[in-house]
Amino acid sequence: MKKIEAIIKPFKLDDLKEALNAIGIQGMAVSEVKGFGRQKGLNESYHGTEYVVDFVPKFKIEIVIASDMVEQTVEAIITATHTGKIGDGLIFALPVEQVCSFAPASATKRQFNRAAFRHKMREKPVNHILIKEEKAMYTNGINPLFRKTFTTALALGLLVTTQALAAEEEAKPTANLTVGAYSQYIWRGFEYSKDSVVVQPSMTVGYKGFSANLWGNYDTDPYVDDTHKWTETDMTLAYGWEMGPMAYSVGYIYYANDSAEDSQEFFASAALNTLLKPTLTVYRDTDYYPGWYTTLGVSHSFPVQGDITLDLGGQVSYLKADSASTYHVSNDPTKAYSNFHDGVLSVGLTVPVNKYLTVTPKFNYTFALSNDAKDLMKASSKNGNDDSFLYGGVAASLAF
What we know:
Blueprint: E1 2-8, H1 13-22, E2 29-35, E3 43-46, E4 49-52, E5 56-65, H2 70-81, E6 89-95, E7 99-101, E8 110-112, H3 114-121, H4 126-139, H5 144-170, E9 174-182, E10 186-187, E11 190-191, E12 198-207, E13 210-219, E14 230-243, E15 246-257, E16 263-272, E17 279-285, E18 291-305, E19 308-321, E20 328-329, E21 332-336, E22 338-352, E23 357-368, H6 371-380, E24 388-399
Antiparallel strand pairs: 1-5, 1-6, 2-5, 3-4, 7-8, 9-12, 9-24, 10-11, 12-13, 13-14, 14-15, 15-16, 16-17, 17-18, 18-19, 19-22, 20-21, 22-23, 23-24
Helix pairs in contact: 1-2
């Protein structure tokens, strides 16, 4: 006999039930659990740095099967729950020495040894046998009304206990400290540094889906004014949650710029937990640069060796200014900018060093998506001629 334990995404439970029913397995135990592994919770991306919002909700499935059904069962679980993204889950196959069916003290303990159980397994699946044995012991001498009442109370008790345990685990705060060194600081297609290394520290704390992040930029050799090397400090407050196959987040960002006006944004994002994890994010600047900035991105991580993954991503954006005083088209200073703006392609590696430390080398290529974007990006570049940028670096993250 084998016990199969599977950690899956919650929205895949119904698909898994149908897959197991199709191969004759009709009984299972389901528990709500929280996971923190290579998926690292709900990841928010800010200025190219990913940080953890919180633990990710999962379902733990437990079933007992005959040893010769392991391969078929594992294949059914993978087929039903696979999405191609990190965090799909895990499957454990554990040996079962014996199964004991128990009842109140007045009943006789019934024990099945492995040989007898294996013999019965040739005739019918183990879950059918266990259900019949427990049903017979449970129903003898008990009237139907009492049985229904007791069963309902037991189910409610298990539900309350499961929720209490989940709440206890949710209450644990998380923290993440990341320091990155990059060849250039490019943000939304705008060049904020040139010919110098920038250091970007980021610190995030999370609790029950809420998170607070502080991010900064230190330019080791500013292109114009070398008296202000610490150029920016930003604060982000966010809340993230999952609902079915979707992951959502909303938040607020305050931009404190040393050589420019401060500004504020609100944002909302929605991501589909599937193969390429398409993510739509809308930003609304309500302060010095009023307007909308919308992005649509996809990403996928490929296992390389052990826990190391190759991370590929792509993103397109649309920028719409409220007035020409914020951004305007090049051939008409009175017309507010509204067009497809910048695209970003990224490739990187996620290299977990130990339980807490992760190293992430990464390269990005940013380019204009329209003629208006080319003119605006060139005009804002340091030398007035660049509308595409290739840059990269490495970040080290400590997660607690």
